[in-house]
Design goal:
- The protein is α/β, with parallel strands linked by helices.
- It has helices at about 5-25, 30-45, 50, 55-65, 80-85, 100-110, 145-155, 170-180, 190-200, 220-230, 240-250; strands at about 70-75, 90-95, 115-120, 130-135, 155-165, 205-215, 255, 260, 265-275.
- It is built from 11 helices and 9 strands.
- The strands form 2 sheets. The chain has a 7-stranded mixed β-sheet with strand order 3-2-1-4-5-9-6. Strands 7-8 form a two-stranded antiparallel sheet.
- Helix 6 links the parallel strand 2 (about 90-95) and strand 3.
- The structure holds S-adenosylmethionine.
Length: about 280
């Protein structure tokens, strides 16, 4: 039985995925194939260099030490895994996307990191050993069954569990563009406050820290940006759409010293963190 917070979470995620599926059949699954096809682009933006200046990395360093075994759930190409590895005993990176993990493995090899293990699979289906610190960054809003995901994270961590999620509505920023093409507002996803609500419903007691993260995505040209926004806006790849997007983005993007970027310089993100082991048993919340 899901409690009210978990039910709300489930409905928000399912409605959003259903909308994506309606606009681009196959996309609503948001499975390994989806992330495989975006792995290279994602890795080029979310590098280890960007991780070390991220407030979440600083929080992870405070939670870990030389002897820590660390687990990164939904690691992607491993920006946090690879940044942490030189400072801890081991890092296990779990992700269903083989391509994302290939990038992580390759980079671990090139930089001589021998304490990184990559496990391919969803968190729900993967078996891993307990870790002192288990965290998941920008994954939970993709997962409809949040209690299952969170209980497992809690059960695997022995000292600290952490979640990193956006604390702003990317949809609100994109809303004028979304409505321009689709005519209605986008189905909203769950927010970090919904995550706090679910955690409390499960009996966990998270501390919440809201941090500012620099927006890092830059484009060389408006045409590059149009490709990316077409994907984010779930639009078909036609010459008309490309032309229209180029026109709109030309007025909307800001030229910065390192390229074209979205109007905001930073966006807020939330770090939710708790001591594991305090949850109520499944079936009672
Ligand atoms: C937005 S990326 C975040 C990557 C990385 N954590 C970061 O912050 O750079 C989301 C990642 O979550 C992974 N993912 C999606 N569903 C998952 C699940 N059920 N279990 C584990 N990973 C999942 C995807 O394959 C993808 O690599």
């Amino acid at each position: 039985m899901r409690g009210p917070a978990a039910t709300r979470w489930y409905k928000l995620v399912q409605a959003r995925l259903a909308e994506m599926e309606r606009l681009q059949p196959g996309r609503g699954a948001m499975g390994a194939a989806f992330w495989d096809s975006r792995a290279k682009r994602f890795a080029s933006r979310m590098s280890v260099a960007t991780a070390t200046t991220d407030p979440f990395y600083r929080r992870l360093r405070r939670a870990t030490g030389r002897r820590s075994a660390v687990l990164d759930v939904g690691a992607g190409p491993g920006r946090f895994t690879l940044a942490l590895a030189p400072h801890v005993a081991t890092v296990t990176a779990v992700d269903p996307s083989g391509r994302m993990l290939d990038i992580c493995r390759r980079q671990a090899r090139t930089t001589g990191l021998e304490n990184v293990t990559c496990i391919c699979g969803t968190w729900e289906e993967t078996e891993v050993a307990p870790a002192h610190v288990a965290f998941s960054s920008y994954v939970l809003p993709l997962v409809a069954d949040a209690p299952r995901f969170l209980r497992k994270l809690d059960a695997t961590a022995t000292e600290r569990a952490l979640l990193y999620l956006g604390a702003h509505s990317a949809d609100a920023i994109m809303d004028p563009l979304w409505r321009h093409f689709h005519g209605t507002p986008r189905k909203p996803g769950p927010t970090y406050l919904d995550a706090v609500d679910v955690l409390r419903e499960l009996g966990f007691d998270p501390t919440v820290e809201v941090v500012e993260v620099p927006t890092r995505v830059r484009f060389k040209t408006v045409a590059d940006a149009a490709k990316d926004y077409r994907d984010q806006l779930c639009l078909p790849d036609t010459p008309e759409i490309r032309r229209e997007l180029r026109g709109l983005l030309g007025d909307w993007l800001i030229l910065r010293s390192d390229g074209l970027g979205a109007p905001l310089k930073t966006v807020p993100a939330a770090i939710l963190s708790w001591r594991p082991g305090a949850g109520v048993p499944a079936g009672t919340s």
